[in-house]
Amino acid sequence: MPRLLYAPTSPYVRKVMVCAHLCGMADRIVLLDSAAHPIRRDPRIAAHNPLAKVPTLILDDGQSLYDSRVICEYIASLAANQDLFPPAGPGRWRALTGQALGDGLLDAALLARYETTARPAESQWPEWRAAQLVKVAASLDEIEAHAPAAAASGPSIGEVTIGCALGYLDFRFPELDWRASHPGAASWFQVFNAQPAMQATLPRDA
């Protein structure tokens, strides 16, 4: 069975596992412990991914797939799931753009978090962290603008990624209180996050 280098707090790992649940394949993936870190390389990951990042999926033939975008599409292809990655047409571009928006929000949020958790105090740059949070805020505004059109059932990779991104804000940035200024996104997320695939993959500290 495929093996996934895994971290229970990673929103990108969660994205992969949500797709696996939606495709009925979660029980066909073996989870491997790892300790991904922006500075300290975990040799268990680096042996299969030169970037030493999770998620990394190791196939039965030894080939490795990374990052979450590739792994999610691989899982959907195995399950012949065309909801996650629609075939050519406007729906596909909406799904992929939604994925890019959610991933971009996560990238900015992680950089903001690393500034205070991975850097020593004397090396931290508050303006850099603030600039990343501006990207987070702008992404939330975009999500709010399109929330009424987002699907809750038969979701695409766009909805999955945005859902995992909003869940990460709840997990690591509760002080942002993003729901207060984005009621449409909050209403959508309340429904989306109740799905079994999301509840089965809630982030947790080790």
Structure characteristics:
four-stranded mixed beta sheet, 4 strands, Glutathione-S-Trfase_C_sf, 6% strand, 9 helices, Glutathione_S-Trfase_N, alpha+beta, Glutathione S-transferase, Thioredoxin-like_sf, 206 residues
Characterize the structure shown:
The protein is of the alpha+beta class and 206 residues long. It contains 9 helices and 4 strands; from the N terminus they run βαβαββααααααα. The protein has helices at residues 11-22, 43-46, 68-78, 90-117, 126-146, 157-172, 178-181, 183-192, 196-199; strands spanning 3-6, 30-33, 56-58, 64-65. It has a 4-stranded mixed beta sheet with strand order 2-1-3-4. Strand 1 (3-6), helix 1 (11-22) and strand 2 form a beta-alpha-beta unit. Helix 4 (90-117) runs parallel beside helix 6 (157-172). The protein starts with a strand and ends in a 7-residue tail after the last helix. Residues 1-83 form the GST N-terminal domain.
How widely separated are the two ends? 24 Å
Strand content: 5-15%
Radius of gyration: 17 Å
The computed structural class is alpha+beta
Write down how many β-strands occur, each being a DSSP E stretch of 2 or more residues.
Answer: 4
Order of helices and strands: EHEHEEHHHHHHH
- Uncertain segments are none
Shape: globular
Count the helices. How many? 9
InterPro entries: Glutathione-S-Trfase_C_sf, Glutathione_S-Trfase_N, Thioredoxin-like_sf
Protein name: Glutathione S-transferase
Organism: Bordetella bronchialis
Domain GST N-terminal: 1-83
